[in-house]
Every structure is written in C-alpha cells, then in structure tokens.
Amino acid sequence: MNAPEIPGALPEEVPDETSQAFYAAALARIPRFMIAVAVVATLGTGLRWDWKTALGLACGSLISYFNFIWLERVVSAVGERAAATQKRQSSAGVVLRFVLRYALMALGAYGILTVSRGSAYGLMAGLFLPVAGILCEAGYETVVHFSGKPRTET
What is the pLDDT of residues 8-52, one digit of tens each? Predict the structure, then answer.
C-alpha cells in the first residue's frame, strides 16, 4: 500500500549503488579527517601558543579520537544485537567499552587539568575533534556533489 501524496512534496529519490557506497564510506573518512585536523591543530597551537597548550590539544584529540572509534563499535554492536546477526558481541564487552570511554576521558582530563590552565584549554578544544572531522566530511561531500565528478568509495 502506497503512502498518500503530500501536496508540494518532492518525489522520493532512490539512491543508486554508487551513491550508497560513497556515503557508506563516510564513516571510514571521518577518522582520517580527524587525524589530519588533530595534527595540523596541534602543530599550529604549538607554534602560536606554548607546548603545554599543544600537549593538552593533542591529549584531548587522542581521547576524542578513541572515544569516536569506541562509540562507533558500541553502536555497531548494539545494532548487530538488535538485528540478531550471527556475529554476537558479549554484553559485558559492550558495557566495558562504554564505561572505559568515560574513564579514559576522566583520567585524561584530570592529568591535563593538573598541569596548567593552557593545557586545559587545549584539552577542551581537542574534545571537539569529531565535530571538525564531521565538518570536513560535509565539506568533502559538498565539493564532490558540486564538482560533477563520479563518486567513488574513497
């Protein structure tokens, strides 16, 4: 049974396989963007301010990167459990990784906050690394869309 048409609504587009593969690869591209942003931002911070702030940014970026990867794995494990696939993840492992993410963030924050105020600023900036990675991915997808070039799985 078809859904009723909404006046003025655009027809629903069904993405082709190339588009689906391109967008599915976004989850692999975002961590690469995050690494690039972290390296550039840490070097720039070290040159502009001091090594303590750069160290704080590097630590915040590292915590943020691992947090992103672990969150991806937790969501994947929960999704597999919901879909009841053959590959089963133990509940204890999923919960342990979830708790470990926050323990790592707390330890990193404690270590950095005891060093200096500048390193605390760097840490807080580093925790926004996933936002920068996702913004880079959005920019990349926009450029690919408007360039008219065929999409690939890069």
Answer: 555 555 566 777 777 778 888 999 999 999 999 999 999 998 888
CA–CA separation, 61 vs 126, rounded Å?
4
- Residue 12 Cα to chain centre, angstroms: 29
SS (HEC) of the chain: CCCCCCCCCCCCCCCCHHHHHHHHCHHHHHHHHHHHHHHHHHHHHHHHCCHHHHHHHHHHHHHHHHHHHHHHHHHHHHHHHHHCCCCCCCHHHHHHHHHHHHHHHHHHHHHHHCCCHHHHHHHHHHCCHHHHHHHHHHHHHHHHHHHCCCCCCC
d(CA 16, CA 79): 24
Mean pLDDT of the chain: 79
Percent of the chain whose pLDDT exceeds 70:
79
**How many Å apart are CA 83 and CA 74, to the nearest integer?**
14
Contact 149, 81 (CB under 8 A): no
Query: What is the model's pLDDT at position 151?
Result: 62
Confidence at residue 37, expressed as pLDDT on a 0 to 100 scale? 95
Domain regions of the chain by residue span? 19-147
